[in-house]
Amino acid sequence: MRIKQISIFIENKTGRLSEIIGIIAENDINMRAMALAESTNFGILRIITDDPDKTEKVLKENEMRYTVNTVLAVLVEDKAGGLAGMLKILADNNIEIRYTYAFIVRHEKACMILRISEEFRAKAVEILQKAGYGGLISEEV
Question: What is the DSSP string of 78-136?
Answer without folding.
Answer: SSTTHHHHHHHHHHHTTPPEEEEEEEEEETTEEEEEEEE-HHHHHHHHHHHHHTT--B-
